[in-house]
Design goal:
Elements (H helix, E strand, L loop, with lengths): L12 H9 L4 H16 L5 H10 L7 H9 L7 H8 L4 H8 L2 H4 L2 H20 L6 H15 L7 H7 L7 H26 L4 H10 L5 H4 L6 H13 L11 H18 L1 H6 L1 H20 L15
Amino acid sequence: MSKGDGRTEAEGPAGAAQAACGAVEPGQVRRLWHLLEPLHAVVYYAPEVFEEAAALGYDTKERWPSYFPLRAAPLGPVGAGQVASAFYSFSPRMVAEHMDSAWAVADPAAVSAARMRGIDRAYRALFGDRVGGPELAAAAELARRAAESVDTACRPLAAANAGLEWPEAPHLQLWQAATILREHRGDGHIAALLVAGLDPVESLVSFAAIGAASVERFESRGWSAEEWRSARERLTARGLVDEHGEATDAGRDLRHHVEHLTDQLAAAPWQLLGAADTERLADLLGDFWVAVLSSGLLPSETTLGIGRV
């Protein structure tokens, strides 16, 4: 594709780096997401993070009252409407329920500090002596290089997290890098949904229709039965979902396109890191990924569809 100055994309700076380091295959882009997502998601489930949130004054009997401010804190003291826009697939009513008073409990800077304290404690509990080991330090260095290369244009959550100061400890750098990279991917995923013409609730209905997760899991995003039914009817009218709520061939093709475009939009940091270092990072992350999954902290079924799509 021409850049308008006579060069192709492969001849630009990013293309030059990619050519020098070796191209990263789409499957590897998705593999890194699967490896890094659980390392990030600990922040929403670890008891150590809940304790830090509770100390600020948040209700932690369930995860949602702390989830929204913990994830939104890097955006600053924004309102529920801006958070709903950035989070996309949550019902605005659900966002407002938890965000309307969130910054009255604690300001975003205090929440950001609390989540880092919680992750520090959670990672130490999960990884033990490996927190200070060479493998984690090497993984953190590679993940940070990838995270620092992300293009944050039109990616609000990636930009907000990329704007935070880097912590000194390698295990905290690893978590921050994982967070920047997952939000970079998530922002791109929203763009892919918009291109596909899927509004927030339609995005969930169409994903449930291909078996990414149960309808009950997706209902945790706060949409009413009527809103879910109306979205299904709209998708049925487009020929994407049948009368039983299952995806048609066209619906599966559209969701495949969404995931493919999401992978493409998430690829740049890995292309800049290069195939060899991306593969090395994947190898280094394996034991830490296993430690998180075997801890039982994370649910076996999520709305991300990891392992099922």
